[in-house]
Amino acid sequence: MIGLRLWRTVRIRRRRASGLVLLLACLGMFSITRNSYAEGLAPLKIVAFGTSLTARGGWQPALEAELAACLHRPVKVDSVAKSGETSLWALTQVDRVVAEQPDIILIEFYANDAALQRFVSLAQSRKNIGDILDQLRQRLPQARIIVMAMNPFSGLRGLIRPFVDSYISVHQAEAQKRGLEFVDHRPNWQRLAPDDLAAAIPDGSHPLPDIASRIIAPELVKHIAGNNCGE
């Protein structure tokens, strides 16, 4: 009787062990299949089109890594950007953006337009961004186009941009008039304590790259991926 019970116990344990092995094997196969699938996908191509807030931003690698982890596919972020430039320069660079054939375009060109010494009027800035958006929509009809407002300005760099909010508003209006997307990063920056914000943007204009990565990348991942992150 004892021998029979022992034999039954051994059989049950063997079945459980076999089931566990099978489960682990299935999970392993799922992981391999998912990874192989991700490796077989073409990268999601993003072009960041902007000023020094893009050229010197340093947030692009974080966006690549976080969005790739979220979507389970490769992501490549390239930049067409130049410090000190305005939307007038941007008009001459549309061909470069189109040549990249991006899936997503991130655009910010209000900051230097708003600087008094650049002499780009509000009306001219509005016309320029409208022309840029029209060209991109026409030539890249499948691309998502996202106009952005970046970080706040302070100190001298804020003083020379007294109407920057108006420039942001007209760029936002031109995007929305065309049914395009707009992401405003300023509220996330303004959640920092005043001393932390000053330390994060020491020159009053250009955030430290590591802080910019923590502020900008998650917001863009949330906006681009929606509720798909982690699935």
Give a short summary of the structure:
This is Acyl-CoA thioesterase. The chain has 231 residues and is α/β, with parallel strands linked by helices. It has helices spanning 2-40, 52-55, 60-71, 87-91, 94-99, 122-139, 155-159, 164-177, 186-190, 194-200, 209-225, and strands at 44-50, 75-81, 104-108, 144-149, 181-184.
Please report the first level of CATH classification, the CATH class of the largest domain. Alpha Beta
Tell me the number of strands.
5
Query: What fraction strand?
Result: 5-15%
* Unreliable spans: 17-38
Sequence of secondary-structure elements:
HEHHEHHEHEHHEHHH
On the 0 to 100 scale, the average pLDDT is 88
What would you give as the CATH superfamily of the largest domain? SGNH hydrolase
- Give the end-to-end Cα distance, rounded to a whole number of Å: 52 Å
Physical arrangement of strands within the biggest beta sheet: 2-1-3-4-5
Tally of domains: 2
Structural class: alpha/beta
List keywords for this structure.
2 domains, Ester_Hydrolysis_Enzymes, Rossmann fold, Acyl-CoA thioesterase, five-stranded parallel beta sheet, about 230 residues, SGNH_hydro_sf, globular, alpha/beta, GDSL
